[in-house]
Amino acid sequence: MQWLRMASIVLLWASGCRMTVAAEAGNALVLNHLDRTGWPETLASQTNVDTASRAEVLMFGKALLASEALDESGLEQRLGVSHVQLKSVRHVRDNLWDRLLVTYRHASQDCDGQPFCPRVRSVADLRQLSAAFTGDISPEHALWASKSLDLHGRVLDEQLRVAVLQP
Q: According to the lineage, what is the superkingdom (predicted)?
């Protein structure tokens, strides 16, 4: 099962990288920081990888929720495009929520008593958990949370921009 968890995590990040590369070259800053999110703990064990994965999923969910709060003109401004095809954007968002749920579930197996471990049964549960998530359990985690939310917001913007430009 560990390989399945890692595959889900890699798939989530790979899709973000693929979409980022496919987007405008002027946003290379996103790629430059994908490996520097500042997670405050070592990733030397599967338990630590799973904890970091759950936290990253929740932060990406938080960025996704923030994008859903924007109306059409807000999205156009944020993405720097003249027209937003909401159907394409909704499709990308729905797929992202599904992938986040799968990844979170895989990283949540046998995590009782570990940080960021509430069980989720559905996308609705994951959305609620993401909305309430702060990652603020220590000063180091709070710094990570701020950087992570910014990073995931930029990666998400690139994915949505690709959905708009190449529906």
A: Bacteria
